């Protein structure tokens, strides 16, 4: 039976569970459940702290797990990224009170508060900057105001928390993170069940990122229209019953939907219909 670690709380928990449910796996209803078996899919889910998941995966006691790239790098565990999951996006950045510290070089000799001491320590060392890293469990934005640190390094999503604490980011992002499926470095071959899980999750990603577009276009304009909707591989073109027109079906990126419909209409396409993809295997 395949063993998969899933975040039990925090920002990644609900979107991870939603994605697995969308991929056809049983998921827990009670947030206190720690283990859930899905016998129909021969898979077992372990609900663990997001920060601990890389440790379990690295030790090889589970076959794969969902966590953040930032948490994986900070863990130092022997686990590798297997697949990006398209949610839980964030940047990891330095911040300080406006105008007090404005470049990475100025971090030298100062105190940096963070919940990600390995990630930050590695970043500073790689750039030859000596600073004192102070490890805190969370809410690091208050560390400057409370006099424990001069600079913070933390997850930034909307930036609301930083603004609220009177801090401003400076320097380049330390990391761009998102939720990832990770597997043990020691795993020599990807288990068959993990390949199925991966394909299912890729199906969810495609269903979320693409829509299906159908339209009719005069046959002599098909080439122009198809240039606007090249699809993933190649669009399907079929003749309409009444001569001189073709029907085209292609996948289109969801965010491009309205621009593509406008462009198709301008070329002469009509009866342009957009349908959501419920599920797919590419
Ligand atoms: N707005 C956000 N706030 C916090 N983490 C986010 C956000 N968006 C994405 N993430 C990602 O979520 C992961 C951290 O999860 P979370 O903050 O839930 O863990 P935690 O801080 O260990 O737990 P908790 O906050 O419940 O104590 C990281 O990979 C981080 O990049
Ligand atoms: O840019 P924002 O949208 O404001 O989000 C970023 C904040 O969210 C996270 O905190 P979390 O809620 O996980 O609390 P924690 O600091 O205790 O981990 C993170 O550590 C930042 O504080
Ligand atoms: Mg947190």
From TrEMBL:
It holds the Pfam family HisG. One of its GO terms (cellular component) is cytoplasm. Its EC number is 2.4.2.17. It is found in: Cytoplasm. Its cofactor is Mg(2+). The keyword Magnesium applies. Pathway: Amino-acid biosynthesis; L-histidine biosynthesis; L-histidine from 5-phospho-alpha-D-ribose 1-diphosphate: step 1/9. Catalyzes the condensation of ATP and 5-phosphoribose 1-diphosphate to form N'-(5'-phosphoribosyl)-ATP (PR-ATP). Has a crucial role in the pathway because the rate of histidine biosynthesis seems to be controlled primarily by regulation of HisG enzymatic activity. This is ATP phosphoribosyltransferase. It comes from Cellulomonas carbonis T26. The gene is hisG.
């Amino acid at each position: 039976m395949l063993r998969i670690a899933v975040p039990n709380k925090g920002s990644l928990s609900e979107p991870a569970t939603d994605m697995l449910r969308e991929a056809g796996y049983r998921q827990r209803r009670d947030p206190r459940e720690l283990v859930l078996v899905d016998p129909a899919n021969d898979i077992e889910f372990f609900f663990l702290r997001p920060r601990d998941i890389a440790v379990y995966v690295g030790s090889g006691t589970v076959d794969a797990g969902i966590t953040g790239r930032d948490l994986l790098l900070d863990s130092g565990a022997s686990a590798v990224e297997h697949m990006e999951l398209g949610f839980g996006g964030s940047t990891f950045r330095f911040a300080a009170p406006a105008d007090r510290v404005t470049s990475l070089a100025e971090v030298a000799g100062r105190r940096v508060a963070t919940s990600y001491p390995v990630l930050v320590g590695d970043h500073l060392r790689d750039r030859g900057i000596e600073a004192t890293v102070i490890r805190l469990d969370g809410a690091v934005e208050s560390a400057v105001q409370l006099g424990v640190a001069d600079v913070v390094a933390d997850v930034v999503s909307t930036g609301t928390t930083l603004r609220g604490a009177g801090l401003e980011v400076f320097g380049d992002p330390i990391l761009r993170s998102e939720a990832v499926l990770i597997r043990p470095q020691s795993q020599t071959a990807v288990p068959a069940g993990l390949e199925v899980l991966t394909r299912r999750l890729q199906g969810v990603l495609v269903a979320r990122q693409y829509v299906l577009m159908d339209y009719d276009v005069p046959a002599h304009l098909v080439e122009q229209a198809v240039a606007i909707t090249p699809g993933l591989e190649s669009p399907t073109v079929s003749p309409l019953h009444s001569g001189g027109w073709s029907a085209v079906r292609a996948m289109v990126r969801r965010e491009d939907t309205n621009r593509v419909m406008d462009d198709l209409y301008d070329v002469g396409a009509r009866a342009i219909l957009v349908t959501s993809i419920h599920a797919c295997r590419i």
